[in-house]
Amino acid sequence: MFVVACTQPNSTQSPKPPDTNLPGVIFGRAQIERVNEMGFPGPVPYDVTNHLCDDLRASKFGHELFFDPKLSVNGEISCATCHKPEQAFTDGLALNKGLAQGVHNTLTILDAAHQTWFNWDGRFDSMWSQAHGPMSHPREMGNTFQNIVDRIVRDPTLRMQYEELFGQFPQEPLSPADIERVISNIGKSLAAYERRLVTGPSPFDRWVDRWRDLQMPRELDRVPALDFSPSAQRGLDLFTSRALCWQCHVGPLLTDGEFHALGAAPRNDLLSDPGRFAAVTALQASPFRTSGEYSDSPHSERAAIVDSLVAQTDQWGAFRTPSLRNVGLTAPYFHQGQFATLEEVLHFYSTLEGSVTIDHHRESILKKRDFSPQELRDLLAFLQTLDGTSPPIEWTRNPKSAEANVGAK
Q1: Helix (H, G, I), strand (E, B) or coil at 4
Q2: How far is CA 163 from CA 152, 174, 190, 204, in A?
Q3: How far is CA 8 from CA 25, 26, 64, in A?
Q4: Could you give the count of Cα atoms lying within 13 Å of 16 in the half-sphere of its Cβ?
Q5: Which H helix or E strand runs over 2?
Q6: Beta-strand relationship, 24-27 and 2-5
Q7: Model confidence over 65-84: pLDDT tens digits?
Q8: What is the 3 state secondary structure string of 56-99?
Q9: How far is CA 365 from CA 238, 249, 260, 312, in A?
Q10: What SS3 class is residue 309?
Q11: Helices first, then strands: H and E counts in the chain
Q12: How far is residue 218 from each of residues 1, 48, 91, 283, measured CA to CA in Å?
């Protein structure tokens, strides 16, 4: 057992006398391992299916495309319409809204390059395959692939940027395969930009670094609190123990990356969302999957996993466990924005008030926790330490804005 500065021991073993004014909480060895695994994730992994994923020219091209409303059918909606930089690349709405009301809450793309699956149901298996989805979705940007390609071909600047990366455009008229190839390249450029949207260490990460720097277990009660308060430490203790948050929110991203049906009451007009069950079939039928012909590594281990997926009935109504990184910035919460605040989320897990049973495969882990008011405050305090520092400002601005141009000089 190791002791850190906190309060209320959760073990019968006597802790070492704590520092002045900070009674001690004992973290069990399993908790210590969980906390160590939860630290800052570091650089984003290389995407073997997108050979330009870290190319600066591709990032700059994708940056322009991300803020370009002319990629939508009405010339008014861009990727940044739903992924607003000033709102942690979300839109603050319960359900996204482009050309029409959407069916899911907008997920942030901050740190998304660390993820394996994309969208709430995981119907995309790479950042570049996800990037084209909203452009052609009738509720979002509503465009056709042909129109999107025409936008690139007819704009001299965009065409020049495209051809510098991918070579000369195919001769017109373009075949359906030619159009799909261009669309996949546009997606790869957007992904190269979005990979730049990574946050720096959070207060929790900085605290974990100090934890790891201590060489002797007996010194763990001397980890300085600074911006990680005693209440946050108590919340971490709960998070990694009896609250069981750690069973789904694990590792550096604080997510297991899997899909669960948690029983949060859906919105009345969205009762039949099949979630992961339908997404697996859609993914395997997509020409843009990582095992498809437009992937730069269609025989990779990642691609083999995608081809081995099977849609199963217990996936009905299951949605991806979101990362808790930057969770304080990305309200509202859950796949339909059912909860407006983190306090409401914690109340749901404490009481299961309003929960529904989707079918007989209901998550067995989901049980009332009956948190006390103080425990709820402590868990909230911990969650509020997970917001990282912003990405470099030059990547968060519209590249055509006056502010961005000034910052680039």
Answers
A1: strand
A2: 10, 16, 15, 44
A3: 5, 8, 52
A4: 13
A5: strand 2-5
A6: antiparallel
A7: 999 999 999 999 999 999 99
A8: HHHHHHHHHHHCCHHHCCCCCCCHHHHCEHHHCCECCCCCCECC
A9: 16, 13, 10, 19
A10: coil
A11: 15, 4
A12: 10, 44, 46, 51
**3-class SS at 275?**
strand
What residue type is 45 in one-letter code? Answer: P
| pTM > 0.85 | yes
Contact 39, 205 (CB under 8 A): yes
Give the C-alpha separation, 222 to 359, whole Å: 49
Closest CA to 337 of 83, 94, 56: 94
Q: pLDDT digits over 152-193, tens only?
A: 999 999 999 999 999 999 888 999 999 999 999 999 999 999
Q: Which residues of 256-276 are buried (b: 16+ CB within 10 A; e: fewer)?
A: ebebbbbbbebeeeeeebebb
pLDDT digits over 292-348, tens only? 999 999 999 999 999 999 999 989 989 999 999 999 999 999 999 999 999 999 999
User: Locate tokens 């009301």: which residue?
Assistant: 101
Measured distance CA(180)–CA(175) in Å, rounded: 9
Question: Residues 3-27, buried b or exposed e (16+ Cβ, 10 A)?
Answer: bbbbbebeeeeebbebeeebebbbb
Mean of pLDDT values over 244-269: 90
Distance (Å, whole) CA 34 – CA 30: 6
| DSSP string over 113-149 | GG-SSBSTT--BSSHHHHHTHHHH-TTTT---HHHHH
| CB-CB contact of 255 with 122 (8 Å) | no
pLDDT at position 14 is 38
- d(CA 1, CA 121) in angstroms, rounded, equals 40
Name residues whose C-beta falls within 8 Å of residue 110's C-beta, 6 or more positions apart in sequence.
88, 89, 197, 198, 199, 325, 326, 388, 391
* Residue 335: both structure tokens together: 């796949």
Question: How far is 159 from 280, CA to CA, in rounded Å?
Answer: 34
The DSSP string of 322-338 is ---TTGGGS-SBSTT--
Look at the block and give the residue holding tokens 């990642």.
Answer: 302
**Conformation bin of residue 349: beta by default, left when phi > 0, alpha when psi is -120 to 50:** alpha
Determine contact, residues 218/16, Cβ cutoff 8 Å: yes
- Position 358 scores a pLDDT of 56
Amino acid identity, residue 344? E
SS3 of 26, please? strand
